[in-house]
Amino acid sequence: MHVVILGFPGAGKGTQTKFLAECLSVPSLSSGDLFRRHQREGTPLGQQVRTYVDSGLLVPDEITIAMILDEINSPSYSDGFVLDGFPRNVNQALELDRALDFAGMDIDCALLIDVTQEALADRLGKRLVCNRCQSIYHTEASPPRNSGLCDYCNGRLERRADDEPEALVRRLRAYQEESAPVVDFYARAGKLVKVDGTGTVERVRQRIKEAIICPATQDNRLSKPVH
Ligand code: AMP
Question: For tag attachment on the chain, is the N or C end more exposed, with fewer CB atoms within 10 Å?
Fold first, then answer.
């Protein structure tokens, strides 16, 4: 199964991507995590994208598309994937379709996690990310057991540079201008499934389960996209 996750920064894509990938028994891949890993490891690509990522601007397509297609062409993704953060514009969506088509495959579902602007401000203002395994915490809704340390790997929890207000404004603008049309792109293709992303992680998880894992009893099933 090939799934892409769409939604504003802070909609909860990262958290729900990992959950959905586990349920579908396919690997997950986050373009943002991949860029941050390159930055941490100091690779040439990491240095090339640092100013874009840290300031909340989209990395140019030629870099991003090459990086993602290279990754999903590896055998680990032969049974499918859940993609978080890619595609971020219509050109990327077209290139992804083209690459899958070449391999005789297709995107099965684009999941939009829908949240209000107020929920975004709260989530991003209180988000902490493990600098080692990228697990995501919220200082109030899902705090770590030991302050400042990851429950899973004991890595240090940090605020992302691009969650700071100035970069955040740029990321929200980039979403509105570039990524909102991607939602229409998948809606027109009959592949969009929309779930309400407000409430607890568990509640959103349940909605995703009902919409994608066992959709037969639900209104927003795969065969009936929500526009
Ligand atoms: P994210 O973790 O998905 O919020 O991504 C963090 C940052 O990585 C974004 O603000 C961009 O600078 C860069 N990035 C991630 N995915 C993409 C993409 N598909 N296209 C361009 N830039 C991206």
Answer: C
